[in-house]
Design a protein that fits this description.
single chain, 246 residues, alpha/beta, 7-stranded parallel β-sheet, 3-stranded antiparallel β-sheet, 10 strands, 17% strand, binds 2-phosphoglycolic acid
């Protein structure tokens, strides 16, 4: 397990892009695991820049996103499909047909979860999973108490997450209560993983996840069991770490 402490969000984006770019150059087709939220935006901006300026090629890349709200149209500006198109896919040479986000509009979400797992397995697994962390320690939308062996499934959001995410919606009541998310077991199966965190509001979750006991109560602590995980954390999010990491 590696922890890289960086000065700010843009530095975080560059370090994350370096890791992904180096790994992408070793394998075709390359399978990215992607995340939404404000945290990965500097990484996506850096990947867009490299695609345009230095020829980082996504033409054969495949992507699977961690999660999606249940019930939001894909044209809704807070749906994660919309977010990914606007923050990344529309600006790089990836084939949109090779980008997957769980279908939060399907009648049978259980079936969607099973098919998503099958699709990931069929392609040979995810090479690099990118993720953020909730202030409550969630990864994807695996809220505290999620089984460490969980797979892609429907989850009910906690009040804490609804409140955190209400900043993106007009009213708190507009935040969907249910989501579909890859499970912790799905995330632990990825070949490499990176967790990005910036801002002092993540400091407590980061310290518990990196240096606390592995517990379903802090879902990101499960990454201590991941065979190849890198945490890229800004200084303000790293203030509660006790061990020497760099
Ligand atoms: P954020 O969300 O990047 O918007 O802080 C992270 C998360 O909830 O996983």
């Amino acid at each position: 397990m590696k922890v890289i402490i960086v000065s700010d969000k843009n530095h975080m984006g560059r370090v994350a892009a370096d890791l992904i770019e180096a790994d992408m150059r070793t394998k075709t087709p390359y399978v990215l695991g992607l995340a939404t939220g404000s945290t990965p935006v500097p990484l996506y901006q850096e990947l867009i820049r490299r695609n345009r300026e230095t020829g980082l090629d996504f033409s054969t890349a495949i992507s699977f996103n961690l999660d999606e709200y249940i019930g939001l149209e894909v044209t809704h500006d807070q749906s994660y499909r919309y977010f990914m198109n606007h923050e990344l896919f529309n600006h790089i040479n990836i084939n949109k047909d090779s980008t997957f986000v769980p279908d939060g509009l399907a009648e049978n979400i259980e079936e969607v979860g099973k098919d998503y797992e099958k699709a990931i397995r069929a392609i040979g697994g995810i090479d690099y999973q990118v993720m953020g962390i909730g202030t409550n320690g969630h990864i994807g939308f695996n809220e505290p108490g999620s089984s460490l062996a969980s797979r892609t499934r429907k989850v009910r959001l906690t009040e804490n997450t609804i409140l955190d995410n209400s900043r993106f919606f007009e009213r708190k009541e507009d935040v969907p209560t249910d989501v579909i998310t890859m499970g912790i077991g799905t995330i632990l199966d990825t070949r490499k993983a990176m967790l990005l965190a910036s801002g002092s509001n993540k400091a407590e979750a980061i310290a518990k996840s990196i240096e606390g006991p592995i517990t379903a109560t802090v879902p990101a602590s499960s990454l201590q069991m991941h065979p190849n995980v890198t945490w890229i954390v800004t200084e303000d999010a790293a203030v509660n770490l006790q061990l020497e990491w760099n």
